[in-house]
Write the structure tokens for this entry.
Amino acid sequence: MTDKSSCCGGDEVRETVRAAYARIADVDAQGCCESAASCCGGSSPDALAQALGYEETEIAELPEGANMGLSCGNPTALGALRPGEVVLDLGSGGGLDVFIAARKVGPAGRAIGVDMTPEMVSKARRNAAAFRDRTGLDNVEFRLGEIEHLPVPDGSVDVVISNCVINLSPDKPQVWREVARVLKPGGRVAVSDVALKQPLPEAMKQSVGALVGCVAGAALVAETERMIRDAGLTDIRLEENSRAVELMAQSNGALYRETTALLPRGKKPSDFVTSLSITARKPKQEA
């Protein structure tokens, strides 16, 4: 089964998202959220990150521009990362979660980011040089690729993380199959994503702005669980957090003004959309 946004076909969805995030990559980190294409709504990425559970010290230690205000959760905390692990971030953007993961897994581990936007990968690689200079760690890598076709070998990753990205894919079941493929037996998933509590109004489903803003392409919570299970993952846990959506909407950025205008009178984004913390595991091989 292929999951596609209503606003356009799969290839068009991908190119629309790629173009929008290329523009975001070229915007200064403190101004990225003023773009109508941004996933968040606020003018302070650091404040939003702290509200979503990132530690102030984690944010302060990041290379400049790594936090672009595109989060809807904190997958590095959700993943309980351990020294020596290999971590893969789907849709790594400027590198926020990759750099935090790299510190947690230490010099014996590795943090790999994959992003389909060349401008984002270039930005992240520049940030990686600053990260190495600042920390002495040489355990990060950024690869250009689509999350539906990960440039990563089978069974090579301990933990897959992602932050407000899978909802953008026009083929979410394929993303989850790829997650299962690259995980080692017993490997873990720790994903923050946007999901729907109820179907969206038709006007919002047809909105390209709502698609790029992580709303129109989102799947229902129950559909998300089914896709993960169908990919062969187990121990699935989904935790809803509508407050995260309210935090993004309250900042009153251009995107959320546009999105809210498409809702029925008296409704707000969090009536339809929730931030979803997802954990799961790839079964261990039988002895």
